[in-house]
Structures are given as C-alpha cells and as structure tokens.
C-alpha cells in the first residue's frame, strides 16, 4: 500500500483515506502531538474546571495535577541568604534567571506546538487532501516572500503565546498580586536582624510601590527589598506590572476573538446571501448595514456598556463578554462591506451557474463555490479589525469603563500610570502603551501580508485568461 493517494481517489473523503492509508508519517505526527500535549494537559484541565461552576473542591483537585512549564516546576521566588546564595528558586538560580528560563521554555514550547501544527497541515495537504491544488497553496507561497506580513505574524504569535500562557509567564499569580495579597506570605532576609523573616505579600507590596519619587520606585528589571524580581517594575500599589500585563493580554485576546468571530459569522452569512440572491434581499441588507454604520460606533459602545453595566451579561468574565457582543453587533457592517464585493464578483462566475444547473442546494453552492474566495478577504479585514477592538477595549478601560477590576486590562494600566509619565515611574504607562502599539501594528501588518498574498482579483483574472487561451488553442 502506497502513502500517496492515486488519482482515482479524488472523490474519496478524508476520513476514508485515513482509514485506508494509515501511514507511518501520520502515526508519527499523532504520537508527537500527544507528547506535546501531555506536559500541559494539567493546565488545560485546571483552566476548564476553574471556568465551570464545580466548586472549590474540583479546582483544588485540578491544581494537584502536575504541569511541566509552571511556576511550581520552575519557581522564581526565593530568598538571598548571604554566604548561602538563593534559597527556594529553581536550582538555586537568581529569580531573574529562573523567570527568564521559564519564559524561554514556554515560548520554545509554543513555537514547537505551532511548528507541529504546520507539519500536520503539510501532511494533510500532501497525502489526504482530495484536491491536488487549492488557492490557499498560492497564498502560502506568496506570503513566504512578504517580510512585513511575516513580521506581523511573529508579533501576533508572540502575543498569542503571552495570552495563552499568561498565568505561567508572570513572576507571581493574580491571586497573590492583586486579589488577596494579605492571605499569602513570603520569606526575605532582613539585614537588620541577620535572619530570614516572613511578611505578607500585601505588606510587601505596600513597601515596594512606584510613585515617581526617590525611595518609592521599583523600575523595570530590578529587585525590591524583599528579593522579588520585577521584569516591568511595580505599580503605584506595589503590584507586579508584568503579571498584570500578561493577564491583561489574555483579556484583550478573549474579547477580540469573541467579537471578531461573532461579527465575522454575521458578515460572511449576509455577504453570501447578498451575493447569491441579490435584488431585494441585497437591498434590505444594505439598508440595515447603512443604518447600523451611520451610528458613531465609539459613542454607541460607551452608551451600551454603561446602560448594560448592571445586567447579568456584565458579570460574565468581568464584563468581557458584554464588550465582545457590543463590538460585534456594532462592527459587523464594515466586515460585511469588505467581503460583499468579492462575493458578488464570484457569484457571477460560470462555475456558480454550473453548480446551480446541477441542482445543488443554494446553501451548498454558497459554501463550496463562493465562500472559499471570500475567506481571504475576511481574514485580512478581521485581522485589522481585531487590532481596532484591542484599542477600543483599552480606550474604554482608560476611561474607567469596560473591564471591571481587579481583572487586569492594558488600558487601565496606562490610565494608572499617566500621572507618573514624566517621573521616574514612567514604566507604568509606557510599557503597556508600547505593547498596545506593537500588537495592533502586528495585526495590521499581518492583514497587509495576507491581503497581498491572496490577490484574489489577480487569481480570478488569471483563470479567465487561462480559459480563454485554452479555448483559442483548442479552436
């Protein structure tokens, strides 16, 4: 039995091919995927159980599941005892090096997972895909030469890893850092007593605030007097800034992905309906879109977030679900207009008429023969819109709206640090603000790269020219 399907298998489903062609490469990829998932399966279970209303007992049981890349496995908090070195950190390393080691391993693990997913796609494309070629193949080839788009992809992937692994990347936990710091203790070496003392995290935070004056500032890449390393420094409350930034990335990603998914589904569905049926149906959707888009989105978002702030929706994920719904329901017209034109263009092609003549159901025709040609446009504008949503959420939090504390959010961090911008505590506002600019620029760059790689109009015209040339040669 060969590994490569024969041409006669063109109409065989992928499931049938997997059953008929259990290649060694497929088995090797599956084994590798399992080996990659196993070290972090505990983190997945913990996240799932903590999100479900199962009580504290289930969460406590989940916390006992070992996780390879975690703060417990590679601890970065310890005590520097003169003559004995660091106590309590991973292999006796300094907190900075232990934290850096954990961060490096997490990003290496994330890169390896992404690479393995890519290898899985190549395996599917070369061995199991029914079509020998799809337009996506050309998109990938063109994107490989687009340096600006690749820069955007790297930024977006780094942001995704930061958001997904946020609890493990922070030097401390949100519970200790902000929610209930006085319930936790830490050990430190007291030079006055010459002994190791104990203090609550809340009291230590009070002594390590950053307020822009001498003696009241813990800047980036420095230690405080309790031997804690702060990669981004501390907040005016003494909380670790990097921990808040990492967890804030997860909040921004959740809101952005949920909002863009909802608006993308609405926009794509309406674009397909508009393109296929046209006429009065298209006109009705245009009127609804114009009516929605005529409203100033920012004012509508602010109004709805205030009006609905006391509803049960505002209690879901500290208001993140409510913000995602508001951005989705006010932002779908722009996505719809972006994909409506290409959908109308494709709907006039001969293959769509041929599909109708064969008696395919309208839903099947839209899904098979129109949707593949507008997905690229949707990806482009969705990527750019995602950056806009992140800015919008940050702006609302900056104004005191949006995500409710103590859940961290980048815009609120900028707001907290704004009065200290010209002092030695500049890092509080500058670092989160810089990350916002870099991430939004990355999403826009990725959108530019995908747009240039797709070049759908050129593909369509090239197909027409090829068909005309073939007809002329045949004549």
UniProtKB/TrEMBL annotation:
This is ABC transporter permease. The chain crosses the membrane at residues 28-49, 99-118, 151-170, 251-277, 321-339, 373-404, 424-446. It comes from Halorubrum ejinorense. Pfam families: BPD_transp_1 (PF00528), OppC_N (PF12911). It is a multi-pass membrane protein. Keywords: Cell membrane, Membrane, Transmembrane, Transmembrane helix, Transport. InterPro entries: BP-dependent_transpt_permease, MetI-like, MetI-like_sf, OppC_N. GO terms for biological process: transmembrane transport. Belongs to the binding-protein-dependent transport system permease family. Its main location: membrane. It is found in: Cell membrane. SUPFAM superfamilies: MetI-like (SSF161098). The keyword Oxidoreductase does not apply. One of its GO terms (cellular component) is plasma membrane. Residues 249-447 form the ABC transmembrane type-1 domain.
